[in-house]
Amino acid sequence: MEFIGDEQSRATWNQHFIQVKSKIKQPRRTHTVKVVTQKGRNYSYKYADLADVDKAVMDACRLVKDKDGNTAFAYYFDIENSSQGVCVQTVMVDTSGAQMITDKVWFSNSKSEDAQKTASLISYAKRYSLSAAFGIASEDDDDAQSLKPQDTRKRVLTLDKDELDRFQVDVYGKKLYLKDIWQDYIEGEDPETMHWLMAQKDPQTLQAIKQLLDQYNLKKRIQEVKYKNLKKPEDEKKKIDEKETGTKKENEKEKNDEIKKLVDGDTTDDETQTLNLF
Hints:
By secondary structure, the chain is of the alpha+beta class. 52% of the residues lie in helices and 18% in strands.
């Protein structure tokens, strides 16, 4: 995070921020998402949408007043939208003029020309950023599992192909194959799926995700090499064709120039004598 302001204004900002956080009522998760994987498996989870989270934060902000009775704390979004993706930051301000800017939340957007998809992605990024800024749990998660005592003797293993294919994870109460979740993310670039992948804390799960990422990058590099090798003969043939075409055009130009000289009467003495024979 980045703070803008002097030490005095920071003290005031901190005081207002603490008051706002203490008055926030966790929004109810009234929306449900149903997800079907490529293998036909399904799971669902509940979440609070952007409007719910915004209302919870703004209701708390309105309760924090300055000495004149005015609302002392508020926030706004700084949004960047490009052909590569969307980026959102939450900027929290108070009456002292101080600002706290959150870290950037960035999501790739391969379909930037699709206005509806882009708007949905921006809305998700806003909810994610705002929830993180004010400590709101806007969706169901299994973070509580990470609070259970862990066996410190458990080792992180590098999985072979069969083990990686069979590796299962708990997703909102359901056992699913990690490879199916990964494939859904690669093919659909779903931000919710990416958020789930990034939120994992179990060392073995992180190792499995890393191996899937390594496989994807390797496959991508191999495809790029194959494409270059297939394209190389085409490029060489194109260069030869261009060279032959250029030579042919030069020969045609020389021939046309000679004909033009004859037609225009621009001939040498020898040519004139030759023509007179006819």
